[in-house]
Amino acid sequence: MFQTTTATRKIFSLKKRVKVIQGGTSASKTFSIIAILIDKAARIKGLEISVVSESIPHLKRGALKDFLKIMQMTGRFVQDRYNISDRRYQFANGSYMEFFSPEAILGARRTHLFINECNNTSFPDYHQLAIRTSDEIYLDFNPSNEFWVHTEILPDPDTDFLKLTYKDNEALDPAIIREIEKARDKAATDSYWSNWWKVYGLGELGTIEGVIFGKFHSLQEFPNDCKQVFMGCDFGYSNDPTTLIKIGVKGEDIYLHQLIYQTGLTNQDISSKMKELGVGRESITADSAEPKSIEEIRRLGWNIKGAMKGKDSILNGIDLMKRYNYHITAESLDLIREWRGYSWKKDMVTNKFFNEPIDNLNHCIDAIRYAIQAHLNKPSGVYAIR
């Protein structure tokens, strides 16, 4: 079996049919569950193991990436046994592991099921998967808020519950530990960091309060029949990422697709990436706080301009954005993460929200807002977000 951590040993000790693993960031939840399932598949003939997440891009970045890494590190991986298009690996003894999103639920049966970050999967989808699973079910998640696991699954006597934190992962780099623990000191005076430390540091149930947008519809591809198509850009470099978001409009519906979300990009790098991505002459609205960057990118041949600033620009932009229905491509993982978490500030003394968003999880949001204000706010002028 793969070299174990405390997290792996704790998960392996769970005996009931449904195994709920709640935990904070870097607690090795997913990695450990995948390692256990690989070990079972290699040792026991005929296992049919399904690993499910909200989308294929999410799987590729998370559970599937961990699977391939463990298989290669342990010398088990045989290329001819892996069907890339079906994301299915057949072991020598006839067992297999497959990776898919909820779109492929109906019909298939299995012996083992693992739903990764199950808080992003609906209860009806879970139920359809569960009734087609004969043996074990693994569910993992960061406890950012109460959802169907707490109300529907934990009360069942055939359910085991385990809470993990980063301290259960001995393989964690000390630099990551230091970064996680920075939130502990901030938690005493800041509502965002208090909730973050509770959820991601301690692995305890938190709350999602004051989310500004949150709801969206997932789509597989950006539509080709939008009435308007334009882009928004937010600059970053060392700590914050540079973002580029493609935006399409059809009536009251707005379609979003993440093109760039990366740190360390120079203006030349941004230009090169846009060429690789096939960006054409679409209008790009960028943060006017960096006029030099805008001018350099414009001279490289792109249709880019700075967003104009105005009074109460952040609140005006949020108000404008909330007038539309949103659809986000499934592969826009960083954008989806920000969309679900972008929130209002909260006063820890009065327990009331400020009329001001938290300056976090906003790199994609700002890019979108720049562009929407530039193109869809004609009656009241163009504003930008500071």
Helix content: 25-40%
Strand content: 15-25%
**CATH C-level label of the largest domain:** Alpha Beta
Largest sheet: 8 strands, mixed
Kindly identify the CATH topology of the largest domain: Rossmann fold
Shape descriptor reads globular
Number of helices: 13
The fourth-level CATH homologous superfamily of the largest domain is: P-loop containing nucleotide triphosphate hydrolases
Quickly count the domains.
2
Q: Radius of gyration over alpha carbons?
A: 23 Å
Low-confidence stretches: 380-386
Enumerate the strands of the largest sheet in spatial order, edge to edge or round the barrel.
3-4-5-2-6-7-1-8
Find the structural class using helix and strand composition: alpha/beta
Q: Give average pLDDT, whole number.
A: 92
Total number of beta strands? 17
Describe the structure.
The structure is a single chain. The protein has helices at 6-12, 29-43, 56-61, 63-73, 123-130, 148-153, 174-186, 191-201, 267-276, 291-299, 313-321, 333-341, 363-376, and strands at 18-23, 48-52, 82-83, 88-90, 96-100, 110-115, 133-141, 159-164, 217-219, 228-234, 242-250, 253-262, 284-286, 304-306, 325-329, 344-346, 353-357. The chain is α/β, with parallel strands linked by helices and 386 residues long. It folds into two domains: 6-168, P-loop containing nucleotide triphosphate hydrolases (Rossmann fold, 3-Layer(aba) Sandwich); 217-376, 2-Layer Sandwich (Nucleotidyltransferase, domain 5), CATH 3.30.420.280. The strands form three sheets. Strands 3-4-5-2-6-7-1-8 form an eight-stranded mixed beta sheet, sandwiched between helices. Strands 9-15-12-11-10-13-14 form a seven-stranded mixed beta sheet. It has a two-stranded antiparallel ribbon with strand order 16-17. Residues 380-386 have low confidence and may be disordered.
